Amino acid sequence: MTQEQRQLYLIDKLLSEAPKYKNIVIPQNLEEQKRLLRSLMNIRRPKKISSDFLEMQDEYLQEELAIKGITDLGDLSPVSEGIYLWQGDITTLRCDAIVNAANSGMTGCYVPCHGCIDNCIHTYAGLQLRLECANVMKKQGHEEETGKAKITSAYNLPCQYVLHTVGPIVTGPLTQTDKDLLISCYRSCLELAEQNGVKNIAFCCISTGEFHFPNDKAAEIAVKTVKEYKEQTKSNMEVIFNVFKDVDYEIYRELLNTG
């Protein structure tokens, strides 16, 4: 079966789940079909789906990953012992674990095709990730606290685990509480990763973007917290600072003195 055929199969199955979408016309354009599929995945509430669907979805997502291309940590050069700086799509990075900047609901972003990292990770991991997150939250019985972290499988991503952490939302001048909560995000992820035998972990720029934490201050906290953790615990865990935007790359480059 071709990738286009898989795409149409998945769209048909998701549309058939919801009668209110029965009048949606599937576009002829392949990129528009892809956006429709992603939208349907994004808005779907966490619930079980057939094994046939998941098998087809996994084949589809693995092919999409192959098209985008995988970056292996082993092909990157550290900027200092145990620390890397890499600009790229975190959903294509092969390492032990990546960090997702989640919201307090912890089941992903429900806005169709939204550009946030939470949406991207859940899209390319597959529907299984949202269901696992929902089960974790059901067991917990309340929304996730800011500064904490949870760990799940990564499903169709090239990493093994996803660590989900809720960063502080900055609504006015930056406060010490905001800073302390962001520090807690990084430490919680590092501690949880260590407990689960993770040898290397990639951090996104937690709380920047949609959560409005100033990029430069967030990066300072990230680098300082990671370095202090490694020094205090004598941890050998490798840390990748993953950035997507040029502005963040330049900020981290200066902080890490990469030249």
Description of the molecule:
The protein is globular, with a radius of gyration of 19 Å. The longest helix is centred in the C-terminal third of the chain and has 20 residues, at 176-195. The strands form 2 sheets. A 6-stranded mixed β-sheet has the order 2-8-7-4-6-5, with helices on both faces. β7 (200-203), α7 (215-233) and β8 form a beta-alpha-beta unit. With 259 residues, it is of the alpha/beta class. α6 packs across α7. The N and C termini lie far apart (48 Å). The model has no long low-confidence stretch (mean pLDDT 96). The protein contains 8 helices and 8 strands. 46% of the residues lie in helices and 14% in strands.
Question: Helices, strands, pairings?
Answer:
Layout: H1 3-17, H2 30-43, H3 51-68, E1 71-72, E2 83-87, E3 93-94, E4 97-102, H4 117-125, H5 127-140, E5 149-153, E6 161-166, H6 176-195, E7 200-203, H7 215-233, E8 238-243, H8 246-255
Parallel strand pairs: 1-3, 2-8, 4-6, 4-7, 7-8
Antiparallel strand pairs: 5-6
**How far do the termini sit from each other?**
48 Å
Please give the number of β-strands. Answer: 8
Shape: globular
Low-confidence stretches: none
Q: How do the strands line up in the largest sheet?
A: 2-8-7-4-6-5
Helix run count: 8
Helix content: 40-55%
H/E series, N to C? HHHEEEEHHEEHEHEH
Largest sheet: 6 strands, mixed
Cα-atom Rg, whole angstroms? 19 Å
**Proportion of beta-strand residues:** 5-15%
Q: What is the structural class?
A: alpha/beta
Residue-averaged pLDDT, rounded? 96
Provide a short characterization of the protein structure.
The chain is an alpha/beta fold and 259 residues long. Helix content is 46%, strand content 14%.
